[in-house]
Design brief:
Elements: H1 3-12, H2 20-60, E1 64-68, E2 74-75, H3 78-85, E3 90-105, E4 108-117, E5 131-134, E6 145-149, H4 150-156, E7 167-172, E8 187-199, H5 202-205, E9 208-212, H6 213-220, E10 225-226, E11 228-233, H7 239-250, E12 254-258, H8 259-262, H9 264-288, H10 290-302, H11 304-312, H12 317-353, H13 374-400, H14 404-407
Parallel strand pairs: 4-9, 6-8
Antiparallel strand pairs: 1-11, 1-12, 2-10, 3-4, 3-7, 3-11, 5-8, 6-9, 7-8
Helix pairs in contact: 1-12, 2-9, 2-10, 2-12, 2-13, 10-12, 10-13, 12-13
Length: about 400
């Protein structure tokens, strides 16, 4: 057995549990355990929130979205759309026209976003998460229907069972004559039949209604223009590979975004918060490790005679330093191991039993989501190792400077 480890382990397992140094060492170990457990739990919660956000977006947004690099809309034709459909890995291509419009139901009015989609919109596993009420249909050309967000439906007091009351949609348009006094010349209007409600997230629920592409095309007078194209990737293909093929096919005039890129700002914010929380808790863990510094410093003072004997027997300074570094490592690693296990068990309990509620009504989860990632455990362990080395280095130097002659 390694001599320095053997001596460090004997100090660590010392039966003199009542002395102050042993108590301080125990406090150090507990402090490291609590800090490590907190890091595991917080990092796992942020991972869970990030996955929750992705799940919410995946229920409403496409796997890949094609937009114009410059401008709000772009012109399409069947030949060009056919070329995109032929790209390897493209399973479903949905045409989209999206714009703001005034909604009216029984005199209740609000400004919302109307999203006109082609008939294959619901073939992209839309609303696979969250809640959905009503018929999964967008009606016919003669009787177009709409799927409303729950917040929109609530604000307008829409009743799906009342078939005789339509949803009126108004869209501003340029007047044919600058001198016109007829208000009807300032907007286009049409009616939709409310067919269903969806609830995914408040961001979408309070703003969107889904309508047929032809209806939106005529109301907004878009003609052959589209605001975006949405792509569902075939099951046997990776989204990143198909994204690169589409970028190559479409060139620099178009942007091809995956779900993360469509909401890059929000996800970047979550990642930054996770990083800053990790740094903050690591700093707190570093403060807690001062106990390791003090306990090892006092141990070095108490064991001066033992150190002097070892040096008299020929032990080099390197061995003395190694003893105290390993003593600090034993304290920190014991606490870290306990903290990692406790953090894992708490996260596992939260996953299975939902111990802590979000405190808000959610269509997807009721409790704080957690997701444990192996690399988080590695980074936390490395942080503990670094902090331990910093906390143990100075006491190890003090121990190595013991004067053999004076102590003996």
């Amino acid at each position: 057995m390694n001599l320095s480890y053997f001596i460090a382990a004997r100090y660590f397992r010392s039966k003199k549990k009542r002395n102050f140094i042993a108590v301080l060492s125990t406090i150090s170990m507990v402090g490291v355990a609590v800090g490590t457990m907190a890091l595991v739990i917080v990092m796992s919660v942020f991972n869970g929130l990030e996955d929750l956000i992705r799940g919410i977006f995946a229920s409403f947004d496409a796997e890949l979205k094609i937009e114009a690099a410059v401008g709000k809309s772009f012109v399409v034709d069947e030949e060009w759309l056919g070329n995109i459909r032929q790209v390897e890995g493209v399973a479903v291509l949905t045409e989209v026209i999206e714009d703001h419009a005034l909604l009216d139901y029984r005199g209740n009015q609000m400004v919302g976003t109307i999203k006109g989609v082609s008939d294959n919109f619901l073939d992209q596993d839309r609303f696979s998460k969250g809640y959905f009420w009503g018929d999964t249909t967008l009606g016919t050309d003669k009787r177009p229907a709409a799927i409303l967000g729950r917040g929109v439906a609530f604000f307008l007091s829409v009743n799906l069972d009342d078939f005789n009351v339509p949803l009126k949609v108004f869209y501003p348009m340029a007047p044919r004559s600058a001198a016109t006094l007829d208000p009807s010349q300032l907007y286009a209007s049409a009616i939709l039949e409310p067919a269903a409600f969806f609830s995914v997230d408040r961001q979408f629920d309070d703003e969107y209604i889904i309508a047929p592409l032809r209806f939106t095309q005529e109301l907004l007078n878009y003609g052959d223009k589209r605001t975006s194209l949405e792509v569902k990737v075939a099951d046997d293909y990776r989204i990143g590979e198909v994204q690169e093929r589409l970028k190559k096919e479409l060139g620099e005039e178009f942007l091809v975004k995956n779900t993360d890129e469509q909401h890059a700002g929000l996800l970047r914010t979550v990642k930054l918060e996770k990083l800053f929380v990790f740094l903050t808790l690591t700093f707190i863990l570093a403060i807690a490790s001062f106990n390791i510094f003090f306990s090892l410093s006092m141990l070095a003072i108490e064991k001066r005679k033992d150190i002097a004997i070892l040096k008299a027997m020929g032990a080099p300074n390197r061995l003395i330093r190694s003893i105290f570094l390993k003593q600090g490592a034993l304290i920190a690693f014991s606490g870290a191991l306990i903290g990692l296990v406790l953090g894992y068990l708490v996260c596992l309990a939260q996953q299975n039993f939902g111990l802590v509620s979000l405190g808000i009504s959610s269509a997807l989860v009721d409790a704080y989501p957690v997701k444990m990632i192996f690399w988080d455990f590695i980074w936390i362990s490395l942080a503990v190792v670094g902090i331990t080395l910093l906390a143990s280095w100075r006491p190890a130097l003090i121990a190595a400077r013991v004067d053999t002659v004076k102590e003996l």
